[in-house]
Amino acid sequence: MTRPASEQVARSERKPLYVKVVTQPALHGCWSVNISETGIGLIATPRRPSEGPHENEPVEMAFSLPDTGAHVRVHGVVRWRHDTAGGGGTVAALGISFGAFDAADGVKLARYLATSHLQVVAAFASDDESRAVRQSLDGVATPHFAATAEDVHALLTRGDMAALLVCGQDESRALALVESLAELRAEVDPSGAGPPSDLASRIVYCAPAAPERLVALFNTGRIYRALGPWPDPDTMREAVLQAGREHGFRTEQWRMALELERNLMRERALAQAPVGGPGRHGEDVGFRSPPMQRVMEMVRLVAPHRVAVLLQGETGTGKEVLARILHRLSGRGDLPLVVQDCGALTETLLESELFGHVKGAFTGAVSDHPGLFVLANGGTIFLDEIENTTPNLQAKLLRVLETGDIRPVGGTQVRHVDVRVVAASNRDLGEEVRAGRFRADLFYRLNSFTIDIPPLRERPEDIPELARAFVEQFNRTLKRSATGVAPDADEVLHGYGWPGNVRELRNVVERAVLLSRPGEMLTRRLLPPALLNNTVPRADPTGDGSLRARLHQVERELIREALERHGGVLRRAAVALGMDPVTLGRRARRHGLWKAE
């Protein structure tokens, strides 16, 4: 195994990829719709609702990369799943984050994503037109030439085509292809609300036709651009690039809409579920530490009031959990809680997601979009990583907080909403204001009630109860039967510094539950090497600042990280470091990081 995909790249662009995907657990009719170096989006047609992997479950996948013949095998985790009924059956949409690739498959995927161009179909092009298309698109897109309408349909079925160039000098033939694609698109998706399929590729018309006919085709959405026969190379290149941007935009918008709908359905289900059972809700965890008891007192105090709340704390301290507790205790628990990560989208997309947009407001706005504030009306909206918003967006957020009025992008009508705002930041917003990166007026509006969440290292009394709740949670989701945390493992958990806070503890417990045998308690054996060696980065106790000592420390940390990433398997860690396993074993033993069984 190579290193996890999440460590190869922090964030990468999603690209359309319409290929058959084989999963384990098996999922019938499974196809990819987009992919990045860190994850993949899938659409499937399960035979029954229980088929295939579900949220938080591990999954193995295998698929091929178009035009390369390369096969990729990867292990991942289902981050979200959304099932809908339609067309006489069930359609499942899944978002999966990659964990570890087989052998060098991660490199194959990264190289494919880095070097792949836009894919374009050129229909009915003559030899001279084909040469002109290749020259115009050189370096920006890969053209695929189709001599017949059947060839066009076969290429479009791949799903990754950003544009269709309709060429040739036969006007009737070119127009017939445009009309047939429009009819087929209407049959497949009459509402226009489905995924960005092959039939939604942008049509750039480069064949002869009467001007009034072209205007009619454009007005009815049958063509994207009309360039006329033998267009200028720069004009063709720009049209294809614009089509590619819109293709990617629609893919991302559709993915976000699916995830939003799934989140809203989950929140309604949680709101209707009876309270009780350990780990069902965040407030069911009995915080024993005085700092968290004070935090919970503040949460209960402010929850019934509409005042905005600012949650501040390090990454992984549980800000979203507290936001959900606030929502449930606010009297709005039977209404939606909408969550938005403000660092996940560009300013334009985030503004559209929060405030909505009207049809035609910008390229790709094919219908009205209500926005998250409208969807959360009467309930709560949680804005995570609010420090990542731009000053322009901060001004609009301030207006919503002060007046409750929102105006969609491109719209003229103002709508009033009643939404409780809970914001979160892993930075000190006061410092951000002083540094000029955050608007002071919005900060003072949010700062009316700030709750600072202490890191886990400052409240070790909470570790046993949190670990117990996580064991019960993962017993349910992973279908395991771990019976608790053994004293030797509890000692290790208490002695660790938890730089990743509660999120890191959750991941450690998830790993241990997954590795546990039926009915087994979680012992030291099931914990990662980093915890067993208590290797939170710290200063050299000898105070030796020599080059030799520093190189010794760097080597130790590199070996420790490699062993941790690969579950303590020496051979895999050696492959990742490019070392001989015997040599790595000798050095790991010297550093006290590995002991032969």
TrEMBL record:
InterPro entries according to UniProt: AAA+_ATPase, AAA_lid_NorR, Homeodomain-like_sf, HTH_Fis, P-loop_NTPase, PilZ_domain, Sigma_54_int, Sigma_54_int_dom_ATP-bd_1
User: Which Pfam families does the entry link to?
Assistant: AAA_lid_14, HTH_8, PilZ, Sigma54_activat
UniProt entry keywords in alphabetical sequence: ATP-binding, DNA-binding, Nucleotide-binding, Transcription, Transcription regulation
Q: Which domain of life is it from?
A: Bacteria
Q: Which residues form the Sigma-54 factor interaction domain?
A: 285-514
TM region(s), chain numbering: none
Q: Which GO terms describe its biological process?
A: regulation of DNA-templated transcription
Q: Its Gene Ontology molecular function terms?
A: ATP binding; cyclic-di-GMP binding; sequence-specific DNA binding
Q: Does the keyword Transcription apply?
A: yes
> Could you tell me what this protein is called?
Sigma 54-interacting transcriptional regulator
Q: Which organism is it from?
A: Corallococcus exercitus
